[in-house]
Amino acid sequence: MTPRGLALLRDELARLRLERGRLESRSADPDGPRELATVVARVAELEDRLCARLVDATDASVPREHVQFGATVTVRSDTGAERTYEIVGVDEADIASGRVAFVAPLARALLGKGVGDIVILRTPRGEEEVLSIA
């Protein structure tokens, strides 16, 4: 989990704990038990997720020879177009912002690759060759 992902999960957990307290105090609401059960389940899920290992890609003591979780990588397509992605956890993935989940095909293709490595991506349009440049 990246520091950003950790902060997002902690924020959601704090918000849901407040919501749980609000729902517990509204015993007359007929939808209350169902809503409360949903919130309690998500709180438990988040508490489990927060036990994940934190990966800080800005830690200079960790070698950066290969693309790994938390890395930011720039790729160049065979047409010359460059795109930059950050490999993140599922909870913080947002392709429009360049954050790709580590389980996504693009991230899986890039993981373990180094600068100058050629990667073949299988896309709905067919195979696309990209060059890992940073």
Topology (elements, then pairings):
Elements (H helix, E strand, L loop, with lengths): L2 H22 L7 H18 L22 E6 L4 E7 L10 E3 L3 H6 L7 E6 L2 E7 L2
Description:
This protein folds into two domains: 3-49; 72-132, Roll (Chitinase A, domain 3), CATH 3.10.50.30. The protein is of the alpha+beta class. The chain has a five-stranded mixed β-sheet. Helix 1 runs antiparallel to helix 2. The model has no long low-confidence stretch (mean pLDDT 82). Strand 1 and strand 2 (82-88) form a beta hairpin. It has helices at 3-24, 32-49, 105-110, and strands at residues 72-77, 82-88, 99-101, 118-123, 126-132.
Quick summary:
34% of the residues lie in helices and 22% in strands. By secondary structure, the protein is α+β, with helices and mostly antiparallel strands. The two termini are 21 Å apart.
